[in-house]
Every structure is written in structure tokens, then in C-alpha cells.
Amino acid sequence: MAAALLAYEATISTDRRSGLTIRDLLGDGSNGAADHALAAGEMIRGVELPPPVPGERALYKRAISRSHAEWPLVEVCARAVVSAGAFQSIRIAAGGIAPVPLRLSASEAALQGAPANPASFAKAAHQATAGAKPLPMTGYKLELLRGLVHDVLERLAT
To answer: Cα(95)–Cα(108) distance, rounded to whole angstroms?
Structure first.
């Protein structure tokens, strides 16, 4: 759910604070020992999503291995407004590729204002993994991520 909340730019309220973002709550992933930034005894009281943008479509897709686990190996959540054949607005978040979900800002930048066509989907999918430094046992996730990003964009654009 965190990847979807990140794509939707949700805000979180606790019994002590309000207006937290998912990034505030989960951190940037640089501290692998920290699951969250809640204080001891602090409880989440609410999650608020912004209203949908007119014409917005969204899609979630995941890759799993039932033989190993029920949770996704990689997951992608994207929201987009496609108008006049181009991406007017795009948000993409991915989970399972780092200690915390990540916004795929390079993919978003490649798509903003770009035509909703196979070449743009391929470029955004490539940008999703540009500069990635996977651990030896997780390198296979890069191909899964590229494939999921491409599939999600293709379906959002139709």
C-alpha cells in the first residue's frame, strides 16, 4: 500500500503530528534498520488522499513468486492524465526495489508532456532503472521493474 500512497502523494496524521508525507513516515531508505519514523507509542490516525485530477486514470501491477512468498517482488503504481495523445500529468511509484517505496522521478520527467506511445513507454521504463545498483541477489528485479513500468504505462494510455 505504501507505493500507492506515495504515487497519490498521501498525507498522514498521527495522534501527535499531522501533514506527514509517506517519505516523512518511511524515510529515504538510507537506514535499513529503521522501519518508520514514528515515535515509540505514536499511532497513525488517518491517511488523506488528494482529490482525483479530472481525467486521471490509475493502475497498480505487481510481479510475485507464489512459490516463495505472497508479497510482490516488484510493484508499480501509476496515476496519469493522458489528453490529446500526451501525458499531461504522471506519478509513478515502485516498491520491492529498495528498503522503502520510491518515486520514479526520472521516468516521470521522461513522460511529462511526451506522446503516449511505445517509444515514450520504453524510455520511461529504461529511466526507471537508470543508475540502479542492485545487490547481487536482486539484479533480476531491474528487468521486472522495467517490464511493469512499460505494461502499466501502456494500459494507462489506452
So the answer is: 16
Helix (H, G, I), strand (E, B) or coil at 22: helix
Determine the Cα–Cα distance for residues 94 and 74; give it in Å rounded to an integer: 7
Report which of 118, 125, 116, 131 is spatially closest to residue 145, judged by C-alpha positions: 125
Retrieve residue 21's grid coordinates: 508525507
Q: What is the pLDDT of residue 140?
A: 95
- pLDDT over 80 at 32, yes or no: no
113 sits in the region (left: phi over 0; alpha: psi -120 to 50; else beta) called left
pTM over 0.85: yes
Q: How far is it, in rounded angstroms, from Cα 112 to Cα 109?
A: 5
